[in-house]
Amino acid sequence: MANSPQAAKRARQNEKRFAVNKARRSRIRTFLRKVEEAIASGDKEAATAALRAAQPELMRGVSKGVFHKNTAARKMSRLSSRVKALG
Is 44 within 8 Å of 83 (Cβ atoms)? Predict the structure, then answer.
């Protein structure tokens, strides 16, 4: 429990940020799952479209501090190589 007004305020701020980041992370995972499903179905056009939609979401997560930039780059690289291999 927070013992000072400052610590109480930081706890409130942390709760808000946690909720925002959790929603953002969930949204990004949904976009990534759509790419995975398109790859699994073997539909290259759908996978390419899903990947194009997922890229800005993932990069937005990086700029908002939800993901590290190298993590996002690794995910994009692996997904794009898998989409490329569908052809």
Answer: yes
Which residue, 31, 24, 29, 32, is CA-closest to 65? 24
| pLDDT-based confidence at residue 2 (cuts at 50, 70, 90) | confident
61 pLDDT tier (thresholds 50, 70, 90): very high
Return d(Cα 78, Cα 36) in angstroms, integer: 11
Q: What is the pTM of this model?
A: 0.87
Nearest to 21 by CA among 72, 55, 57, 61: 61
What's the confidence (pLDDT) of residue 35?
A: 97
Return d(Cα 48, Cα 2) in angstroms, integer: 49
